[in-house]
Amino acid sequence: MTLMQQAAQRYPKALLALEDGTVFSGRSFTGHCSAVGEVVFNTSMFGYQEILTDPSYCGQMVAMTYPLIGNYGINSEDVESDRIQVKALLVKEYQGRPSNWRSQTSLGDYLKASGVPGIEGIDTRALTRHIREIGAMRAALSTTDLDPASLVDKARDCPQMIGQDLVREVTCDAPFLWENGERKPLRGDLGGFQWPFEPDKWRVVAIDYGVKYNILRSLEKRGCTILLVPAHTSSDVIDRLDPDGLFLSNGPGDPAAVEYAVDTIKAQLGKRPIFGICLGHQLIGLALGGRTFKLKFGHRGANQPVKDLSTGKVETTSQNHGFCVDMESLNKRDVELSHINLNDKTLEGIVHKELPLFSVQYHPEACPGPHDATYLFDRFISMMKKHAKRE
């Protein structure tokens, strides 16, 4: 008996039903389960642990296009947040016996511990092709309800991604400092906060819309003291904190629904250097008077080609987004388009012509992914040096 035949006997049958009526069958390697959410695909060949813990995937089931997943296991260091964020993981073939010196547990056990479904045996090639044709859509998954019509109804009852403010589900409950690669809670609230006396470091307030840890690692590596604050933090509070720079993080959901964040960014424009990544980039676009729209199936993977319009160089980038800023909606007298996606010509970066502000749609922290765009963190440091208010 082959390993796949053994798995078929050991794992319960699962059905995945899309809102358009398409149904895929597989097996749950995490036991009986059910879930609803938007189904998207990621083209990375590795990095499933970083993908699972990326808050930008909140509310979504992720299908991996690479067929064999789980072979190097899970460790405690390569997480991008404090928990698994995806609704479910869909793979072609699960490897339950990992082989890697850093592995501490299997992918299946990791998912089980968080109550997150892991489904194998899905025809991920067919699923991906279908999503590329029709677009990302809502779905329902179950091992107990195996009635296709019932699951399709559940998929259609699931909330649309457009209009959802998912930032509220992933932002931090209270502010904290990021020190030596770890979260350090504050002793009091922001009202009594004083920056540590570190004259050689740059004070950065990072607004947490669903930040990935490697972004914080990348800033700390470059000499930043980072105070992470909840997404609803007001502009007045940021003014009192008086940081050298303001960082706007990645995050999930529809940027147009996060109106409170847009209001804060509008009030901060021109006061200090601002750097935004992913959702932070989209929110900057809205704050500058632009519009956002939902992409047909999004950009998710570690191999997205982006062109730097100032140099003509092409970067291979890591991406995870389903919404985009409409470049035609931006005022070109104020904003310069800095980067475009070479696959579909969508906007990937902007630079303000007068204010100390820039942002990118992709992930220069590269987890998982290439390191072509890490220079953007250095650009933020240079911008803070240029506009420093303190001696």
Describe the protein.
The chain is an alpha/beta fold and 391 residues long. It has two domains: 3-157, Glucose Oxidase, domain 1 (3-Layer(bba) Sandwich), CATH 3.50.30; 167-386, Rossmann fold. The protein is 24% helix and 30% strand. It has an eleven-stranded mixed β-sheet with strand order 11-10-13-12-14-15-20-19-18-16-17, with helices on both faces. A seven-stranded mixed barrel has the order 1-2-8-6-4-3-9. A two-stranded parallel ribbon has the order 5-7. Helix 9 (259-268) crosses helix 10. The protein is globular and about 65 Å long. The mean pLDDT is 95.
Q: What key phrases describe this protein's structure?
A:
Rossmann fold, 20 strands, 391 residues, Glucose Oxidase, domain 1, 11 helices
- What's the arrangement of strands in the largest beta sheet? 11-10-13-12-14-15-20-19-18-16-17
* Extended strand count: 20
What is the highest CATH level, the class of the largest domain? Alpha Beta
Secondary structure category: alpha/beta
User: Roughly what fraction of the amino acids lie in strands?
Assistant: 25-35%
Low-confidence stretches at least 5 residues in length (pLDDT < 50)?
none
Furnish the topology, listing elements before pairings.
Blueprint: H1 3-10, E1 13-18, E2 23-28, E3 34-42, H2 48-52, E4 60-64, E5 68-69, E6 88-90, E7 93-94, H3 107-114, E8 118-120, H4 124-134, E9 137-142, H5 148-157, H6 167-170, E10 176-179, E11 182-185, E12 202-208, H7 213-221, E13 224-230, H8 235-241, E14 245-248, H9 259-268, E15 274-277, H10 279-287, E16 292-308, E17 314-325, E18 335-341, E19 347-352, E20 357-360, H11 375-386
Helix pairs in contact: 9-10
